[in-house]
C-alpha cells in the first residue's frame, strides 16, 4: 500500500512538470528541438513562414556563416540562406556575428514554407562546415492565420472584406470602408456575446488612438494593446464611446490556433521617431543651420544641411493651426512643374498636439481620391520616406524639421536630389482637409510665380535676414512639440447657414450625416454622434408650425428594434436632447411628449413612428471640411433605402393651442438627432424657407476636387 501511494504522487508530479513545459513552449509556437554542437538555442516554428530561436548562442567564428536550411536528409551545401536580421541593408545578407543568449526571429524567404523543410543549421559556406543544427519532425504543422467573416454592417457605412487574424495580436482588415463621421469612434474589443461599453480601445493602423478617420477601401493591420491577445476577447468592433453605438463587429471564436505574436508582424506607422534619425544623425530644436532661403514673400523659410544619410530640412511658416506647408522637388528637371513633384507636407495637428511630416507625390492637379491627385505616398501604395525630427509652434509660426534621402527610395513616388548641383523646388501653404491631408491653396497664399533652385549640398547660403523661428539653443530634444501661443484664427470654421421650413404640412423625415464642424454641432451647440434628422432632405431645419394646424411626418428612420443603428423612431417633445427610450423613469418624467410615443396598459412607453430606413450616406468619406455650403455638401451624398422598403410611418400631429413656443423633433432611441420646432399663432410670418436645398434628389454630382497650385522659386 505505501508503494502505491508513492507511485500516485510521482505520477502527478511528473504530469504537472510536463504540462508546465508544454505550456511554456506553446507561447513561442511549435517546439522543434534544440540546436546541437557549437551553437545552442531552442527552435520553434512560429508559423509556416517564421522560425524563432530562444536563447541563441554562437561564437561568431565562421567567416561565411549563415542560418541555412533545406529539404535534404541532413545539412549540406545544397540549401538556402535565411537572412538575419531580416531588415538588413545591401544586396547580400550579412554574415552571422557573435550572439550570446539572443532571441532570434527568422523570416523565411518568399515562397519558402516551414513544413517543406527538414533542418536548420548554422552553416559556413566557404568551408562547408555545420556549426550546429536541428532536425525538423515529419509531422511539423505550425499554426496558421485564421480567416473570419467580414464586419457586420450596422452603421456609418462600415463594411470590409473577410478579417484575418495574422497572429495572437494582429488583425488584417481588407477593403475597409467607414465614413469617419462619428465623433468618438474607435476600434474596440471586449468580452460578451455582443459588443458593449465595457471594452478596450485598439490603436489604429498608425499606432495611435485618435478618433477614427474615414476609410475608402483601404487594407490595414491593427494590433491589440499591451499583453492583450485574441484569446482574451470575444469580438472586434467599431464603437462610438460617447453614444454607446456599435457600427459593426466580427466575433472571435474560442480556442483559435493562431501563431503567437513575437513581433513578426510589425506595423508601419507614422509616429514621430526619437531625435536620432538615420545612422548617427542627431538633430534637436537647438541645431544651427547655416543655409536658409525665403519663399512666399517671406511667409516661409527653408533651412537645410546635407548629411551622410541625406539632407535635413527645417521649414518655418507663418500660418494657421489648420494649415499645412509643403516643400519639395519639382516634377521636371530644369523647370517648375507641379505634376510629378515630390514634396513633404508638414503641419501641426491640434487634435493630438503632434507635428507631422508626410511624403507626398503630386500626380494630378486635384485633391487625392485614393489613386490620383495630391496624395500621401502611403495612401496610394508607397511609404512615408520622410523622417520627422521635431516640431514647434510659437506666436503663429509653425516649424517642422525632417530628414529625407538624396536618392529616390521608390522610383514611382520619389525624386532624386542630385549630390552636386542645383534642383528646382516648389512650395505652398494651404488648409488641411478632414483627413489631415493637403487640400488646396489660393494665389494670395503663394507669392510670386518664379523659378527657384537649391544646391542641397551647399553651405553658407543665407538669404534670411531674420529667422521666423530662431533656433532655441536651450532645447536639444527631438520629438513632440512646443506649446502653441498666439495662434492665428484667420481661417476659423464658419458654420453653414441654418435651414428653415415653413408653410409645409407634409414633412418627410430621413436619416443622414451631421456635417462635421459646420453642421449639427455648430448650429445647435449640442454634441452629435454622426447622424441627424433630414426633414424634406434638409439637415435639421428649424420647422415653423401654427397652433391648431395639423401636420404629417412621413418617417423613414428605420424600424429594426434589434439594431439600434437602424431604429430611429421620431417623436415630438419639449426636451432639447431627446432619446426618450434610453432615459430612466425619472428622466422620462422630466420630458413632455406631444406626439410619437404611446403607453401600454402597464404604463410602458413605445414609439409609434418607426418606418423603414432611408439614409443619406457619404459617397466616399465625410467632406464637410471642403464644403462651403450645405448645398455643396449635398452633392457628396447619396440616398440609400432598404431594398424591401415598406411605406413610411405616418405621424399625424395637430398642434395644441396651448403648445409652448419651442418644441423639438427627436429620435426615441438616441440623443441629439433633431432640432427646433417653432410654434407660432396663425397669421405669423416666419422666415422664408430655403429653396436651393429643398431636395437632394436630382442634384448634379460634381467634383469637389480643388487645384493645388504650386509655388516654385529660383535660386542662383
Key traits:
mainly beta; disordered C terminus; 716 residues; 6% helix; seven-stranded antiparallel sheet
The percent range for strand residues is: 25-35%
Mean pLDDT, nearest integer? 82
Helix/strand class: mainly beta
Which descriptor suits the 3D outline? flat
Low-pLDDT stretches are: 1-25, 268-282, 442-448, 473-491, 690-716
Query: Fraction of residues in helices?
Result: under 10%
Largest sheet: 7 strands, antiparallel
Radius of gyration, CA atoms, in whole angstroms: 32 Å
E-strand count: 45
The span between the termini is: 102 Å
SS summary, helix count:
4
Q: Can you offer a commentary on this structure?
A:
Helix content is about 5%, strand content about 35%. The model is unreliable at about 1-25, about 270-280, about 440-450, about 475-490 and about 690-715 (pLDDT under 50). It is flat and about 100 Å long. The protein is mainly beta and about 725 residues long.
Amino acid at each position: 500500500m505505501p508503494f502505491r501511494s508513492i507511485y500516485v504522487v510521482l505520477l502527478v508530479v511528473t504530469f504537472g512538470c510536463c504540462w508546465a513545459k508544454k505550456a511554456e513552449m506553446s507561447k513561442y509556437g511549435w517546439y522543434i528541438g534544440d540546436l546541437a554542437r557549437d551553437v545552442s538555442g531552442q527552435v520553434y516554428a512560429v508559423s509556416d513562414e517564421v522560425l524563432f530561436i530562444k536563447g541563441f548562442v554562437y561564437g561568431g567564428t565562421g567567416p561565411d556563416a549563415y542560418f541555412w536550411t533545406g529539404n535534404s536528409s541532413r545539412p549540406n551545401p545544397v540549401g538556402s540562406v535565411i537572412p538575419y536580421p531580416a531588415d538588413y541593408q545591401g544586396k547580400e545578407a550579412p554574415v552571422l556575428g557573435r550572439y550570446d543568449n539572443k532571441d532570434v526571429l527568422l523570416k523565411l524567404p518568399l515562397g519558402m514554407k516551414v513544413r517543406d523543410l527538414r533542418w536548420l543549421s548554422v552553416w559556413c559556406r566557404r568551408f562547408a562546415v555545420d556549426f550546429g543544427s536541428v532536425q525538423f519532425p515529419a509531422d511539423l504543422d505550425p499554426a496558421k492565420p485564421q480567416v473570419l467573416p467580414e464586419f457586420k454592417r450596422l452603421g456609418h457605412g462600415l463594411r470590409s472584406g473577410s478579417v484575418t487574424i495574422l497572429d495572437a495580436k494582429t488583425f488584417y482588415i481588407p477593403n475597409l470602408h467607414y465614413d469617419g463621421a462619428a465623433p468618438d469612434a474607435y476600434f474596440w474589443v471586449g468580452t460578451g456575446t455582443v459588443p458593449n461599453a465595457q471594452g478596450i480601445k485598439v490603436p489604429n493602423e498608425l499606432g495611435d488612438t485618435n478618433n477614427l478617420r474615414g476609410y475608402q477601401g483601404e487594407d490595414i493591420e491593427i494590433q491589440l494593446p499591451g499583453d492583450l491577445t485574441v484569446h482574451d476577447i470575444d469580438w472586434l468592433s467599431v464603437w462610438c464611446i460617447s453614444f454607446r453605438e456599435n457600427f459593426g463587429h466580427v466575433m472571435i471564436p474560442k480556442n483559435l490556433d493562431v501563431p503567437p505574436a513575437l513581433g513578426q508582424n510589425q506595423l508601419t506607422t507614422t509616429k514621430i521617431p526619437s531625435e536620432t534619425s538615420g545612422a548617427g544623425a542627431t538633430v534637436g530644436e537647438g541645431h544651427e543651420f547655416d543655409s536658409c532661403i525665403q519663399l512666399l514673400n517671406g511667409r516661409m523659410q527653408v533651412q537645410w544641411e546635407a548629411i551622410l544619410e541625406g539632407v535635413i530640412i527645417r521649414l518655418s511658416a507663418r500660418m494657421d493651426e489648420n494649415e499645412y506647408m509643403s516643400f519639395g522637388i519639382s516634377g521636371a528637371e530644369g523647370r517648375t512643374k507641379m505634376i510629378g513633384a515630390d514634396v513633404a507636407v508638414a503641419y501641426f495637428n491640434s487634435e493630438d498636439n503632434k507635428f507631422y511630416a508626410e511624403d507626398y507625390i503630386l500626380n494630378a492637379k486635384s485633391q487625392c481620391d485614393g489613386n490620383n491627385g495630391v496624395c500621401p505616398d502611403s495612401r496610394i501604395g508607397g511609404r512615408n520616406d520622410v523622417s520627422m525630427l521635431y516640431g514647434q509652434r510659437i506666436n503663429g509660426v509653425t516649424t517642422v524639421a525632417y530628414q529625407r534621402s538624396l536618392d529616390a527610395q521608390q522610383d514611382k513616388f520619389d525624386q532624386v536630389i542630385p549630390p552636386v548641383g542645383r534642383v528646382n523646388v516648389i512650395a505652398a501653404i494651404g488648409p488641411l482637409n478632414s483627413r489631415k491631408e493637403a487640400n488646396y491653396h489660393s494665389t494670395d497664399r503663394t507669392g510670386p510665380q518664379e523659378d527657384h533652385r537649391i544646391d542641397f549640398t551647399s553651405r553658407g547660403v543665407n538669404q534670411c535676414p531674420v529667422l521666423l523661428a530662431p533656433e532655441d539653443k536651450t532645447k536639444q530634444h527631438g520629438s513632440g512639440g512646443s506649446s502653441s501661443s498666439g495662434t492665428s484664427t484667420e481661417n476659423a470654421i464658419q458654420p453653414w447657414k441654418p435651414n428653415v421650413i415653413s408653410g409645409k404640412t407634409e414633412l418627410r423625415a430621413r436619416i443622414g450625416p451631421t456635417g462635421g464642424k459646420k453642421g449639427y454641432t455648430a448650429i445647435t451647440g449640442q454634441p452629435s454622434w454622426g447622424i441627424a434628422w433630414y426633414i424634406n432632405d434638409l439637415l435639421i431645419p428649424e420647422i415653423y408650425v401654427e397652433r391648431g394646424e395639423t401636420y404629417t411626418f412621413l418617417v423613414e428612420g428605420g424600424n429594426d428594434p434589434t439594431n439600434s443603428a437602424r431604429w430611429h423612431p421620431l417623436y415630438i417633445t419639449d426636451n432639447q436632447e431627446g432619446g426618450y427610450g434610453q432615459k430612466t423613469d425619472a428622466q422620462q418624467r422630466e420630458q413632455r411628449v406631444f406626439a410619437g410615443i404611446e403607453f401600454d396598459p402597464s404604463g410602458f412607453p413605445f414609439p409609434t413612428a418607426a418606418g423603414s430606413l432611408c439614409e443619406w450616406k457619404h459617397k466616399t468619406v465625410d467632406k464637410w471640411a471642403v464644403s462651403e455650403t450645405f448645398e455643396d455638401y449635398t452633392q457628396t451624398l447619396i440616398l440609400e433605402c432598404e431594398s424591401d422598403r415598406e411605406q413610411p410611418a405616418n405621424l399625424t400631429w395637430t398642434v395644441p393651442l396651448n403648445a409652448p413656443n419651442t418644441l423639438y423633433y427627436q429620435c426615441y432611441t438616441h440623443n441629439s438627432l433633431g432640432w427646433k420646432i417653432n410654434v407660432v399663432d396663425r397669421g405669423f410670418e416666419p422666415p422664408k424657407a430655403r429653396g436651393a436645398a429643398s431636395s437632394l434628389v436630382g442634384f448634379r454630382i460634381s467634383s469637389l476636387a480643388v487645384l493645388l497650385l504650386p509655388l516654385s522659386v529660383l535660386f542662383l
